[in-house]
Model the fold of this input.
Amino acid sequence: MSSSHEMTTTTFELDGFRIAGSLGVVRGISVRSRNVFGSIGARIETLFGGNISLLTTLCERTRQEAFDIMLTHAHQMGANAVVGVRYDATELMPGVTEVLCYGTAVVVREQLTSGED
Done:
């Protein structure tokens, strides 16, 4: 699945489209842990303050993976869009985090402009 998708939104409608059908909740879950080298590198970065790039990269990869899994789930259900997209994260144990991306799978159709049938 693509790493970005123009037919997803955090709102419950897409400009220029009407929702023809709702297929239900779709989700993508990714569980990640830091490796020992990443943990040591992140600790060193905290000594200097600022952005902890090792953890930022890990978080971004995990969110992207959860998003891609959600899009695959939506596609399998026959959706061509996902609305109401949200993320949630939970620490399952020290150093292990679950990222959940979820939304509502929908079928959308282009809205006709005035005067068209």
Q: What stands out?
A: Residues 17-33+63-110 form a domain with the Translation Initiation Factor IF3 fold (CATH 3.30.110.70). The mean pLDDT is 82. The CA atoms of residues 27 and 102 lie 4 Å apart.
